[in-house]
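User: Teach me something about this protein's shape.
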Amino acid sequence: MQSPASQPLSRATGFTLADLIIALAIVMILLSLGIPSFRTLSAKNQQTSELNSFVHHIYLARSLAISSERHQMLCPSSDGETCLDNSDWSQGLMIFEDTNKNKTRDEDDRLQAYHRPTASTKIDIHSSAGRKRVVFHGDGRPSGYNLTLTFCDPHDLVPPKAVIVNNVGRTRVSDTRSDGSPLRCDR
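Assistant: First, the predicted structure itself:
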């Protein structure tokens, strides 16, 4: 048996400064590759979530019009009380029963639904020119012509998408405008 004093000295194990710098460099490279992908994924999820919510509310407005046989108004709204007088739907939307058909929510008009995007949602939503409101008649048809709502990421991380409501009330999601032309986000 050897005495402790006669045993060979063992070398201490651990990380050297060079090992730590190399590991840190690898982590930084992986993060620099992953963060842009995460931002794109987050933008895509926000766009899809808002798009699905709008489709749901369009279906709801049409369904309410058919079941009640009364005019249901769908319009952009930031407070769930009044319609905005522009084609920017980014602040939210509301559905109300327009009993006197004046396209304005009065005290006796029942609010059917209100949707407001979360504060963290950064998606620009604009309707086709002149379409500040959609009125669904009792038979489910919207008045007027096609509505195209364009969902744009303000940072251009994901391509725009559109929700298109045709003049008989059918709704679809598209990568192009109703005429096949490309979607534009230059508002």
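Now, about its shape. The helical segments are 17-68. The two ends are 86 Å apart (CA to CA). If you'd like, I can walk through any region in more detail.
User: That's plenty for now, thanks!
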